[in-house]
Write a structure and sequence with these properties.
- This protein is an all-alpha fold and 317 residues long.
- It has two domains: 150 residues, no CATH class; 123 residues, Serine Threonine Protein Phosphatase 5, Tetratricopeptide repeat.
- It has 13 helices and no strands.
- The chain is globular.
- The protein starts with 16 loop residues before the first helix and ends in a 13-residue tail after the last helix.
Length: 317
């Protein structure tokens, strides 16, 4: 059985850990753990209700390849925060991409235009989660559908306050735009998707402990976009894990200069300052103050309100 999913957020090169667990994007750590404890007995070799050897093996694979990594990411504060950075980036770009994305689920398409999309999202995801791991042969399809729910929801959250998004993949009228600007826009969108893919791959490599490969991935990404704050931040964090403090400082300072509220850079810079025994008031690569103390407080506030997604939607109580 293939474990590749090409629908929803997966189609944008994002591993949708929330869809794998069947929980809303605003789920807090307690909800993540509760859901994991519901799924684990259905898949663990010692408690799996399946009697067929092939089904037992499938359950084992689902547990090790999907459920455990998803739980490991969402239950760890730092990893969850990194994942939310990727999701927030995707949410910001979805309004420009939705017309080119195909969604198979009728319910997910409904969410893109429904006035009460938040209510529909929670209700439908709860209904799907109730049967998500009931039939093992259908698990991948249900994860894909849940990811389409998440994609549709993010598209609405990213444009909250604006008019409802147009129907997914609906034909767009030709715009009288000049060829050159249109080409530039397409190139920018393609570059953004490449960078998002590099960030995802690098984060997965870090999760597996393959730091050197993550560093290589991020350095290649920075060759394409040298002003990507998320890439500089994650590269600085990677160098920090390799105890290369000087290189870590360079990239973390650059990340904070580009995006002073970048949570990954803030957290890594705090750890770097602790290691170096500094006062915590670092300098940017250009010699100016980074505002580390204020940024640290901002990071703490974000952690209390649900990480980087606090600004998009509130953490589930």
């Amino acid at each position: 059985m293939s474990f590749e999913i090409v629908r929803g957020l997966f189609a944008l090169s994002v591993t949708d850990h929330h869809a794998i667990l069947g929980i809303p994007l605003n789920s807090d750590p307690k909800a993540v753990r509760q859901r994991y404890l519901q799924i684990a007995p259905l898949l663990h070799p010692d408690t799996c209700p399946a009697t067929d050897p092939k089904e037992k093996e499938l359950a084992k694979q689902l547990m090790s390849k999907l459920v455990n990594p998803a739980y490991a990411t969402l239950s760890n504060a730092a990893k969850r925060q990194d994942h939310e950075v990727v999701l927030r980036t995707v949410a910001g770009r979805l309004p420009q991409q939705m017309g080119r994305i195909q969604i198979a689920s009728d319910v997910a398409r409904q969410m893109t235009t429904a006035a009460n999309f938040e209510q529909v999202y929670v209700q439908q995801l709860r209904s799907l989660a109730a049967q998500q791991y009931g039939v093992l042969a259908e698990v991948m399809a249900r994860i894909a559908e849940a990811s389409e729910f998440n994609l549709a929801y993010l598209s609405r959250v990213g444009t909250k306050g604006a008019a409802p998004a147009a129907a997914i993949a609906a034909p767009r009228p030709a715009a009288p735009a000049a060829p050159a600007p249109a080409a530039a826009t397409n190139a920018n969108n393609a570059l953004a998707l490449e960078i998002e893919g590099s960030l995802r791959r690098a984060q997965e490599l870090l999760t597996k402990g393959q730091t050197a490969m993550a560093v290589h991935e991020l350095k290649e990404a920075l060759k394409r976009d040298g002003n990507s704050a998320p890439c500089h931040a994650l590269l600085g964090k990677s160098y920090l894990e390799q105890n290369q403090n000087t290189l870590a400082k360079v990239h973390l300072s650059r990340a904070l200069a580009l995006e002073p509220t970048n949570a990954i850079a803030i957290a890594a810079k705090r750890e770097l300052d602790r290691r170096l025994g500094s006062s915590g008031q670092g300098q940017t690569a250009k010699g100016g103050q980074t505002g580390t103390k204020a940024a640290q407080q901002a990071a703490q506030d974000k952690g209390k309100s649900g990480g980087l997604f606090g600004g998009l939607f509130g953490r589930k109580k």
